[in-house]
Design a protein that fits this description.
alpha/beta; 7-stranded parallel beta sheet; Rossmann fold; binds guanosine-5'-diphosphate-rhamnose; binds NADPH dihydro-nicotinamide-adenine-dinucleotide phosphate; NADP+ binding; about 40% helix; 4-stranded mixed beta sheet; UDP-galactose 4-epimerase, domain 1; 12 helices
Length: about 400
Amino acid sequence: MNNSSTSKVALITGITGQDGAYLSEFLLKKGYIVHGLKRRSSLFNTDRIDHLYQDPHEENRNFILHYGDMTDSTNLIRLIQEIQPDEIYNLAAMSHVHVSFETPEYTGNADGLGTLRLLEAIRLLGLEKKTRIYQASTSELYGKVQEVPQTEKTPFYPRSPYAVAKMYAFWITVNYREAYGIFASNGILFNHESPLRGETFVTRKITRAAARIALGLQDKLYLGNLDAQRDWGHAKDYVRMMWMILQAEEAEDWVIATGKTTPVRDFVRMAFAEAGLHLRWEGTGIKEVGILDSVDKEKFQSVTVLERQNFEHRTSNPEHRTPKIGDVLVKVDPKYFRPTEVELLIGDATKAKEKLGWEPKITLEDLVKDMMQSDLKLMKKDQYLRDGGYETLNYFE
Ligand code: NDP
Ligand code: GDR
């Protein structure tokens, strides 16, 4: 273990997730020694951070992973005692809103009580003055619309087991700050996405499917509520703010958002257009469909030519299903509707801008481009595999 006395030491829970990966890169660049909590799983679950991996036999490592779980207090106490972190970033969570309706008790345990376990560990180990903690709070706390845009003062009205668990985590963080003087802050982050976003969140599900449809690997994309509106930013911008929150003079709670909101339907349109496919929407509610209206030939072909495979080659393979004008490429499937939905999120990050100088740098247009380019590249691998006669993953959750 690297014991350099000049480097700050951070512990990231949820290091294998989207934000954990970007935050690790960010902190390593700043010269931190980064420790991370990873869960034991039967398969490797470190894809997003493999490029940071260091051989455990090496001396003076600055990136160290530990097995653990947010539901295991003794494990968390032992690790925090051993690591003596200057900063803890609590990113670990069962983070899928829809899945939380299927696993409400586990979600409450990991997302709600898990936060308490970390705070208690800090207190029990007498680290109140040394260890600062960031809690990954969420715009889902606002739930049912009370006011827009949402600020640090907007009342909460959570609409899922996930959001209710995160509400406990939010308030227990505030309580430990007030009761024990721990530097404990909530970042109330609005949706943030990236090429590393989990495949079952709506943005990634869309960019992945748009790439697969453009490359002839998939016919259709099934989605739930197309009317939901989200304030989408890029994860890279948001992890920077997590760090800024722990460098602030005082522990406080902060809204982090772009201030712009977009319906899911428009995200679909933007992603498909990036692959050269322009959609027209018809119908309403569960009868709504996205029909291929026109093909931007240059862009569509560049999807394939760029990867050294031309249009003709692709269409000459009978297994390749080239999207044709009039095809229904997107359909609504009520199975993706949530028992209670959050219809409209739009955040006001004025406090973060004025007090910490934070502003998002990456626009939604650039986010969509980034995700589409990455997924087109990734899906190209599937195309090669399938052309070579190998099975490819067909997973449409
Ligand atoms: P991800 O789902 O990508 O990552 C979640 C991480 O938590 C993974 O590393 C996962 O491990 C880990 N994890 C889940 N359950 C446990 C557990 N019981 N014990 C230990 N680790 C666990 O989420 P994001 O990176 O997108 O989000 C990070 C945090 O920010 C989450 O808390 C999320 O709720 C919150 N948030 C996210 C927003 C967003 O838009 N992305 C917005 C606002 C808040 P594994 O890889 O093994 O599954
Ligand atoms: P969200 O993200 O619930 O906002 O939580 P998600 O991408 O899952 O849903 C956004 C909106 O899209 C609608 N939707 C669909 N969602 C999914 N997953 N799959 C579909 O097929 C689909 N069709 C429509 C949803 O109904 C919803 O309205 C994310 C997570 O990262 C949380 O951890 C985080 O706290 C919040 O963002 C801020």
